[in-house]
Design goal:
Length: 235
């Protein structure tokens, strides 16, 4: 894992855009995309630059179960608003949150993923170490699946809804194995709330209790963070 620390978030996101543009110039055509507050400044920067994804394919990490693509808190709507409207891809795939049989939708989405190798995967990280919606305890060999969201994850996402009662209790997510198949992974971790979990990942812990710790086994991971190393005082 290659770690880069930035004092300014602005510089971090400039670097993230550069990594994505370079990947595309190097031939990447299939991109795994993420959502959430961490990604908003990134997509804002991408919208402003001269980069064309019209010959590329995108796959999103996850989608809430029970929210249709037109629901303003669905990830389909998020992607349209923050990226696709300005930078359309040739094809963009997300799990269908309104599928009648979510478990079957997970199998369908996984089979699509297996037909298209991800050249590049973008990730955020949850305070509990989740990547995608793979909560602690998710098997490292998991494929796309239906997940019941941890209460801490629902609380973290409640700010986007009127109340926590409106936050869906389930989601469809790429599995950890699905993510690990990507040729290159870029993880962005910003904010003090992510410090503890990032330190566990960087310590190369390898435990299903911290899903992101699986990244220590991937050959090509870049981590960008605005967290500086803590100075340990000696008494």
């Amino acid at each position: 894992m290659k770690l880069e620390r930035f004092s300014l978030k602005e510089d971090l996101y400039t670097r993230a855009v550069d990594i994505i543009v370079q990947a595309k110039k190097s031939g990447a055509t299939t991109f795994g995309l993420a959502t959430g507050g961490t990604m908003e400044p990134l997509y804002a920067k991408i919208r402003e630059i001269d980069v064309d994804f019209s010959n590329c394919i995108s796959f999103n990490l996850d989608e809430y179960v029970g929210l249709g693509a037109k629901h303003e808190q669905s990830y389909a709507c998020y992607m349209d608003q923050h990226l696709f409207r300005n930078k359309p891809f040739k094809e963009s795939y997300l799990p269908n949150g309104l599928a009648d049989h979510p478990a079957e939708e997970a199998v369908r989405y996984e089979s699509l993923l297996q037909q298209h190798t991800l050249d590049f995967q973008l990730l955020g990280i949850g305070q509990n170490g989740h990547i995608g919606f793979n909560e602690p305890g998710t098997p490292f060999d998991s494929f796309t699946h239906l997940v019941t969201l941890a209460q801490s994850t629902r609380q973290a996402n409640a700010r986007f809804f009127e109340s926590i009662d409106e936050v869906p209790t389930q989601a469809l997510t790429m599995g950890i194995q699905s993510i690990m198949r990507a040729k290159c992974i870029l993880l962005i971790a910003v904010g003090e709330a992510k410090r503890d979990v990032l330190e566990r990942v960087l310590a190369s812990e390898y435990t299903e209790d911290v899903p992101a710790s699986v990244l220590s086994k991937h050959p090509n991971v870049i981590i960008l963070t605005d967290l500086q190393e803590e100075e340990h005082s000696h008494k």
